[in-house]
Amino acid sequence: MTAPGTVPQASYAVYPSLRDKVAFVSGGSTGLGAEFVASLAAQGVRVGFADIDEPGAKALAAQVREQGHPEPLFVPADIRDVDALQGGIRQVAETLGPISVLVNNAANDQRHDSAEVTPAYWDEAMAVNLRHHFFAIQEAVPGMRALGGGSIVNLGSVSAHADFTGIPAYITAKAGIEGMTRTLARELGPDRIRVNCVIPGWVLTERQRTLWFTPEAAENVKQAQCLEDNVMPADVARMVLWLAAADSAMCTGQKWVVDGGWM
Ligand SMILES: NC(=O)c1ccc[n+]([C@@H]2O[C@H](COP(=O)([O-])OP(=O)(O)OC[C@H]3O[C@@H](n4cnc5c(N)ncnc54)[C@H](O)[C@@H]3O)[C@@H](O)[C@H]2O)c1
Fold first, then answer.
1. Superfamily in which the 18-201+232-258 domain is placed by CATH
2. Do residues 23 and 33 make contact, with C-beta atoms less than 8 angstroms apart?
3. Ligand 1 pocket: which residues have CB below 6 Å?
4. pLDDT means over runs of 10, the chain (263 residues)
């Protein structure tokens, strides 16, 4: 998916350092995750991805195969289940080879009212939006260390920087990801493992279009962004590719914002 008025796909960067690498993407069946899987595969990366959406995963794998790129490996796993997630990462490493790129992407931005949030709901929101980032990194790091380095990309959100309401637990989790990025970048730097946080603005995925992107919301986005085009999944994927590639070798511990200049 590319924004209207943007240059043709063939004009964008190719990263030779990514060819034949192995990547793992959580929540890769649909939305931004699917764009990351397809974009990495188009660079010659062998990609494994976890999700609970099996039909979406199959459709994506077929689409990538038909485009002539390495078919991604789907490992069904609910990322709230740490054993299943870590088992999925191990399965990808055993099948495709040592993982040098990890994209922690899965999330659920279900709206919730502060007055109605229970402790159980809160814990659930942390499990689906925050906790799995840490445990995926914990599983992937020994392999990256053995390889002599790696690149970890965590997905944050513009919502932790703007005046959004109606998703307080999600926003808290997204803000936490930024802190996790900083401390783990420091901890893992001596192993040449880079940890960065990509912060998308409001991205027009199918889910956003269907659930939340009303004409009023579209108008608000226009007002908030410096650039008037909507941010598309491909715009965010290009940032992820650059952070995964050797081109960003000396960049770690940072936030990379792709939001059309949200103010
Ligand atoms: N779309 C946006 O506007 C936007 C804005 C800011 C940040 N982000 C961030 O970008 C990332 C991707 O967002 P998106 O809009 O593509 O999300 P999405 O909801 O469209 O897709 C998320 C994917 O994760 C999967 N998933 C959900 N729960 C899961 C679970 N328990 N186990 C395994 N897989 C699960 C879903 O099936 C889906 O394939 C998220 O981290 C999100 O917070 C998105």
1. NAD(P)-binding Rossmann-like Domain (3.40.50.720)
2. no
3. 27, 29-33, 50-53, 56, 78-80, 105-109, 128, 155, 157-158, 200, 202-203, 205, 207-208
4. 62 97 98 98 98 98 98 98 98 98 98 97 98 99 98 98 96 98 99 99 94 92 96 98 98 98 97
